[in-house]
Known about the structure:
The chain has 168 residues and is of the alpha/beta class. Helices cover 42% and strands 12% of the residues. The chain has helices spanning 3-6, 10-14, 18-37, 46-55, 104-113, 130-141, 156-165; strands at residues 40-43, 60-63, 87-91, 119-123, 148-150. Helix 6 links the parallel strand 4 (119-123) and strand 5. The longest helix has 20 residues, at 18-37. It starts with a helix and ends with a helix.
Amino acid sequence: TNPWVVHPNSFAWKTLSFSSVVRTKLYSLLQKYFIKRSQYIITQAETTKAGLQNINPQAVIAVVPNVLPNVFQNIDVDHIDATDGTINIVSVSAPHPHKHINIIPSLIRELQSIGLNNVRFHITLPKDSSVWQIMERELLRDNNIQYVVNHGRCTQKELAEIYRKCDI
């Protein structure tokens, strides 16, 4: 499910250093080599399946979604609209380098450059993680801290409420 392989994004590539681009491209080439040689592949999402089919159209690819936690089985799923016109985007993630959540400050600047100043990101990074601390410094430097709400570690029930309040 490596997004650099199955659905690369030109904006994301621009966020990498030269050495990271070289490393990621080599790693992706190796993964594509093995994908092309595979007869059967199991993945977790239809989007990933489509990307894998572009690489190896002959492979039999099955989608087996993640298990839905019990807390999501019986919750109110009605969306709660923001009353202030804000577009709320949730990114539930751990502070792992391959998640590239650290591009959010750059995304905010890019959105602002095209006139979108009503986007707020909701993230779930531990407050003591180096990824969050670096992002926070960058957001403060750019005077954009108000565009990111870091909820920190959340329970499944707390995540369900965050999802209800987000648009994307």
